[in-house]
TrEMBL record:
Organism: Aegilops tauschii subsp. strangulata
Membrane-spanning parts: none
One Pfam assignment: Peptidase_C97
Family label: Belongs to the DeSI family.
Gene Ontology molecular functions: deubiquitinase activity
GO biological process: one example: proteolysis
Protein name listed in UniProt: PPPDE domain-containing protein
Domain PPPDE as annotated: residue spans: 1-119
Keywords: Hydrolase, Protease
Lineage: Eukaryota, Viridiplantae, Streptophyta, Embryophyta, Tracheophyta
InterPro entries to which the protein is assigned, alphabetical: PPPDE_dom, PPPDE_sf
Length: 139
């Protein structure tokens, strides 16, 4: 997206990004809209077919075991139904923040939440290794 090159790369303000959290290198977890079931999904790191991988940012280390990470992901799957997705107030960034909070690692860098914060009344924050991608769709 050209807007990301201008806002994040050009003037350092942020952009509109899809984010996911990768823990232990096996898969990344994120959240998106679907009519039925959980909006939480996983895929191999940097291989989400709907987005073009942009960068990875190390957010910190978790003391959670792989088993605990999987348990947290299962719990979040129940708490984040796909139909609850809201573009500005309950999106992949908010999911990643909550996942990171449960993992005990630092939050997403503020530049990735710029547009959420500008257009939403609520400020949500939180995030191990963050996977950043840009949509393959043209806007």
């Amino acid at each position: 997206l050209q807007i990301n090159r201008i806002f994040k790369d050009g003037i350092g303000l942020g952009g509109i990004f899809h984010t996911a959290i990768q823990v232990y290198g096996n898969e990344e977890w994120s959240f998106g809209y679907c009519e039925n079931g959980s909006g939480v999904f996983s895929c191999p790191p940097a291989k989400n077919p709907m987005y073009t991988f942009r960068e990875s940012i190390v957010l910190g280390k978790t003391s959670c075991s792989p088993r605990t990470v999987n348990q947290i992901a299962r719990e979040l799957s129940r708490e984040w139904p796909g139909a609850s997705y809201e573009l500005l107030s309950r999106n992949c960034n908010h999911f990643c923040n909550e996942f990171c909070d449960k993992l005990g690692v630092p939050k997403l860098p503020g530049s990735f939440l710029l547009f959420d914060d500008l257009f939403s009344d609520t400020l949500h924050t939180c995030s191990c290794l963050m996977m950043v991608a840009e949509s393959k769709r043209s806007f």
